[in-house]
Amino acid sequence: MTAETPEGRDHEAVKAGREAEHELTLVGEAFNLLRTEYQKLWMTTSPKEVEAREKLWLASQMISKVESHLKQMVADGKVAAKTLEKDAGVKRPFFNMKRSA
């Protein structure tokens, strides 16, 4: 099965979604910590430090963009998994598998 076929694209999206979901779980707290740190730094700047304040705002916005992109990848993978389940007539627990330690 290749990425040129609809099934291949679905499998690729599922794989990417699973990977993104795992990564999103791992970095979610880091995103929040960075946002908090940027807000604290922004609060310590003076109104005259326009460039520094703009850079902090931009950094905060970029965090949100990256997080949003990862969430969309996860959503795309879940949709692809449902499509595969429907097409195969089999329920596949791609996103409900428990990892053993």
What does the model show?
With 101 residues, this protein is mainly α. It has one domain. It has two helices and no strands. Helix 1 packs antiparallel against helix 2. 9% of the residues are buried.
Structure keywords:
elongated, 101 residues, 77% helix, mainly alpha, 2 helices
Topology:
Layout: H1 6-44, H2 50-88
Share in β-strands: under 5%
- Overall shape: it is elongated
The tally of strands reads: 0
Q: Encode the helix/strand succession as letters.
A: HH
Uncertain runs: none
Give the fraction of residues assigned to helices: over 70%
Count of individual helical segments: 2
Quickly count the domains: 1
Task: Give the biggest sheet.
Answer: none
Distance between the termini: 31 Å
Overall pLDDT level: 78
> What class would the helix/strand composition place it in?
mainly alpha
Rg over CA atoms, rounded to whole Å, is 19 Å
Nutshell version of this structure?
By secondary structure, this protein is an all-alpha fold. Helices cover 77% and strands 0% of the residues.
